[in-house]
Amino acid sequence: MGMSQDNLRGFILALLSSGFIGASFIIKKKGLRRAAAVSGVRAGYGGYAYLLEPLWWLGMVTMIVGEVANFVAYAFAPAILVTPLGALSIIVSAVLAHFMLKEKLHQLGVLGCVMCISGSVIIVIHAPQESPITSVQEIWAMATQPAFLLYLGSVIVLVVLLILYFAPRCGHTNVLVFTGICSLMGSLSVMSVKALGTALKLTFEGKNQLVYLETWFFMFIVATCVIIQMNYLNKALDSFNTAVVSPIYYVMFTSLTIIASVIMFKDWDGQNTGSIISELCGFIAVLCGTILLNSAKDSDRGSSFRGEHAPLSPTLSTGLFSGNRETLKHDEENELLPDDICLRKQEPY
């Protein structure tokens, strides 16, 4: 199946997003190392010297550029194409870390990279073509169709049930509770992001969509979903090991996002069964590759030191677009590095 111009733009933007975001973690990590070497206190132990480190800020700017590219990608391409490509950021980070930070990429990690790339290629080749959208009111009609309203109602009921009943009872012992809330709300946030991005794209093309109440409503939904996601993703990361939360969140978030997109935007309408099966196989390959990469990172951490470690709060982009990126952030600020060990040995007891 040939790739449309919009799909091609979305694909390129998603690739650029993964490249910038993956590189940003390496740049920030080098900045954190420099700041720790100067101040003697790591960020993971309460140090804030990195705020004065230009390299760290360069990493932040790089991440922001990547997230803007990711946001715009949703305006051009279907979520079933853009969302799984977020896994490529962890490949970029792992490869750059291997060469720039001398963090060895083991065979398990290499296999994970190959699976992610293979799966992404399959998804891109068989990605569905979206019907042209001429106004935000068309998206509103899609969001209010009975099938999506049923999905929306189911998500709201499940989220309320998880928050009010399950979270107080087993939220801190069952990883599926908090990650389930994040993933369910995440699927709605991506649909709203896509609607808002499309409205802004049409506005820049000369068809002003800011005059419609629906545009502002989608913006309100994005803000509400992100706040809820951030709150419960923080709870999940505070209660469980990041290496456990990250792959589970990625699986649930991406799966629910694809389901929501298929229902709302009719991504699979007009596609043959072979293309749909190929997309699912590609997604499974990306999923397995991501789990392997996370397993390799967890193994490396376990070989260097033992015990629980509290991850820091995730960024907005992490909660909104890709769960696996939190693993990268956790590595960047909480991993015990040789330089950090030396610094800690110099501290008085």
UniProtKB/TrEMBL annotation:
Membrane association type: Multi-pass membrane protein
Pfam short name (any one): Mg_trans_NIPA
Transmembrane portions of the chain: 6-27, 48-65, 71-96, 108-128, 148-168, 175-196, 216-233, 240-264, 276-296
Subcellular localization: Cell membrane; Early endosome
Gene Ontology, cellular component aspect: early endosome; plasma membrane
Gene Ontology molecular function terms on file: magnesium ion transmembrane transporter activity
Keyword Cell membrane on entry: yes
Annotated InterPro entries: EmrE-like, Mg_trans_NIPA
Keywords tagged on the record: Cell membrane, Endosome, Ion transport, Magnesium, Membrane, Transmembrane, Transmembrane helix, Transport
Family in the record: Belongs to the NIPA (TC 2.A.7) family.
Assembly with partners or alone: Homodimer.
Functional summary from the UniProt entry: Acts as a Mg(2+) transporter. Can also transport other divalent cations such as Fe(2+), Sr(2+), Ba(2+), Mn(2+) and Co(2+) but to a much less extent than Mg(2+).
This protein's name: Probable magnesium transporter
Natural source organism: Gossypium australe
